[in-house]
Structure formats: structure tokens, C-alpha cells
Amino acid sequence: MRTRASLTTTVAAGAAGALHAVAHRVFPNQPRPPASVDDRWVDVSGARLRYRYTPGGGVPIVLIHGSNRSLEYWTEIIDLLPRGRCIVALDLVGASGSDRPDVAYDLPCHHTYLVGFLDALRIEQAVLVGHSFGGSLAAWTAAEAPERVAALALVATPGLPGSLVMRWPKSLFMRPGVLNRALGRLVRTRTSRRLCPDWLARQDLGMAGSLGAIEFTNALDRIHQPALIMMSPGDRRVPWEFAREYQARLPDATLVELPVEGGHDAIRAHGQLGAQVLRQFLDLVDLVTVETDLVGIEPVEARAMLPT
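RESULT FIELD:
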């Protein structure tokens, strides 16, 4: 009996070690960025979130990056958007310069932090512009908190079943299922967090584990705000066919085809075009909402009950 128990323990430890080794090869590190005079911070449920904003009036535009990215993803787009408009870009919880607490990092978790962020900056309603997972989060928030979202732009956005295409072996874990949950538990251990503080495995697994689930597809049916869908036929991460499905599911959606060149990051590769499309979308949307001007406003502390 002892021999069998010892063998079982050895096999389990070996399997865990193998999973850990694979994870180290496929999930990136993201060191914290150097300090910048443009950085601002706000506390949301005990986690400091980094953000930058361009002061102005109108309904704020909130720019949400995707996985393994940061608020700097939007730098060129921000410079090309209309002057005098309030624009906010943030590092999602767990990313870049924001804190990296031990939380689930799935869509409901990120949604809670995003709404807390809006509360902290006293933004009652915003236009959410999201790239990749940031678009998934924008869509989820539009469905779960429609009063906070005046309109949304989904750029190269996964979320529908089969819409996130990854190479092997990452494709084994970056989808809902047993392997995603098992590796997610492993990388959340105290040892993993201590030895690999800049490792994004927890964040990537949490995000991917909630994409492709039926809950996301059902959430799309609750979105009625004006929506802009921007995708590229050259995107190998989120196939073009899903742009059509988003357009069919969202009742007030406009689909814009970005150039093939640039693929998943076509909006950044073609910044002038991306900014032009966003400007036109903002001009067409009738935003009869509460305006916010962030000039001189000190963020307030936002706390919420977070899922684990």
C-alpha cells in the first residue's frame, strides 16, 4: 500500500512538474515598466491600477488593452483621436504597471475591477474601446452593466466558441476545460508567485478560461448599445469569420475591415486608419449621456467584492 501511495505521489508530482515546465515555455514574463511622469494610480479593491488620461470633456473614451499588453498599446491611437475629448487608458489588473493580486483573472473578475476603476474616476458612462481580450471585457461589461457603457468598439476580439486560435502547446490550455483549470491552480501556488513574480501564466489562463464559454455568447444577446467591430482578414489569432458573427448578434453593429497586413495588431499597424474609423464612429453615435471632465478630479477609493 505504501509503495502504491508513494508511486501515485511521485507520478502526480512528476505530472505537476511537467505542466509547470511547459507553462514556463509558453507563457511570457512582463516586467514592470519604468516610471513615467504621465502615470497615475488609483486603488480599486486594494490593488493599484496604473492609468493615463488626456483631460477633456464629452463622454470619456476608455481604452482597454489585450493580454500580455499594456496601456502603451494605445499611444499612437491616442495622439490621433480628437483633441479636447477625455481619453483614459489603463493597465488591467495583473498587467504591466498595475498590481498583480491573487485573483481569478477571468471576465467576471476583470469586469469587477473595470467598473471599480470607473467608479474611482467618477466616470458614470464611457465609450469602451477594447483590443483582443480588452474587447471581450468591453462586451461583457456592456452586457453586465449597460448603464455604464454608452457605446463600444471591439477590435480583434475573441470570446465566441472557437474564436481564439493558439499554436500548440498553448492551444491545450488557452480554452475552457480541465487542463486550463488544472494548470491555473498550479500556477497560482505561493511558490510559483514567489519564484516568477513577472510571469503572466495566471493572467493568461484566467482570461482564456472564460473565452469561448456559453456565458459569453449569451451575454452578447444583452448588448444593445451602438457597437463598432474592427477586424482584419489577416488575423491568425481571431479568424475573420467571427467578425460576421459579432455583426449578426449585435443589433446596432457596424463592421469595418482592417487591412490584412498587421493581422491581430492591424489597428496599431495602421494607426491613422484605425483612429479615423474611431473618430467617425464617435461622430455617428448619439451619446446623450452624462459628460465627465477629469481635470482636477482626485480619484476616490473603490472597493468591491471580487470573485476568487
